[in-house]
Amino acid sequence: MKARTAARLAWAAAAFAATVQLVALALLLLSLASPVFLPSAVELTSGTPVAFVGFLAYPMVGGLIAARRPGNPVGWLLLAFSAGVALTNVIYLYAVYGLVVSSAPLPGAETAAWADAWVWIIPLCSLPAVLLLYPGGGVASPGWRWPLRLCFAPAVLAAGIGVALRGESGHQILLGEELPSRAARVLEAIILPFLLVLVLIGVAALVVRFRMGGWEERQQIKWVVLSSTYLVLSGALAVAAPQLLPPLAGEFLSTLGFMSVPLAIAIAILRYRLYDIDRIINRTLVYGSLTIILALVYVTAIVGAGTLLQEVTGDHRNNLIVAASTIAVAGLFRPARARVQAFIDRRFYRRKYDAARTLEAFSSRLRDDVDLENLESDLIHVVRNTMQPAHVSVWLRT
């Protein structure tokens, strides 16, 4: 396939997936605007309107990768995943709109409800394939081809189960609650665990690539690991601590985590600012640890000092304690950041830490050393230890 033809096909697929997702968003907004559509039914969809808009990052990134790197199947798999999820959203929301919101059942709504019982498994099959083929587009070794061939078996089995149980009604959407059919129960009991095993195999393939691959491939894997970690943490925070976040903050936080994965894949495969990942990880570790430490100090100061003040004075007002704690945390920021940064560099970036120490020691000796032979020897030693070049030579102008 020519590069221009592949680019046109990639952007056409991306436009199709984005358009279908926007149709799903329109159906969701119509359903939310109806008094018949209960709020509990929103949880049965793939997210809120914010998440629907954030999902558009997947077809856009898939189209960009497929257009720029048509030989890499990761971009095409992202497009397939995007189109599959968008179609699944439309199928489900059309069933909701046609069976619950509409005053009379719409044509094809029953069929959409039946299809929704099993069609959602199909786009998920591309996820283990992406893990097995990322980042270069090939498997890590010939032994990983068998898991790759099995990736789309759950889709075939799901379709077969759906057709075999066609006589049953699909998801019965009654009063905002979803009652799964026998097909859905079979999928959740058999096919979903099988798909989970394939995902774990894909993760194992990434671990093998990281251990056996070169430095550039490791940088590419770090991007996906960091974005996946942020996705898990943001989702867990949005679910576990909704009382600590404003109403829309949790949705935006989880949506940003969902969008970070395709963006990280695009950076890794297209190699745009690929080598900034170590700096990003370093800053994430430093400021994440610093935030936790200062938050604990702040809460401990407010609770401890506030309790003590109330026992002594009997006054439950703690405005002074809050102000003093805020000033103390602000004063601790710089020294705490320096200590955390030094610990992170010493523990996780030992090579960089040793290089900095070596340069500091050489700078202190440089002020007192006037012998050119000693200076040349020290300079060569420092360059070899810090930069590790293949060859070092010193040229002195006379």
Tell me what the structure shows:
With 398 residues, the chain is an all-alpha fold. The protein folds into 2 domains: 3-272, no CATH class; 286-348, no CATH class. The chain contains 16 helices and 2 strands. Strands 1-2 form a two-stranded antiparallel sheet. The protein is globular.
Question: Secondary-structure blueprint of this entry?
Answer:
Layout: H1 3-33, H2 49-54, H3 57-68, H4 73-101, H5 109-116, H6 121-124, H7 126-133, H8 145-150, H9 153-164, E1 172-174, E2 177-179, H10 182-212, H11 215-240, H12 249-270, H13 277-313, H14 319-348, H15 350-366, H16 372-386
Antiparallel strand pairs: 1-2
Helix pairs in contact: 1-3, 1-4, 3-4, 3-12, 4-5, 4-7, 7-10, 9-10, 11-12, 13-14, 14-15, 15-16
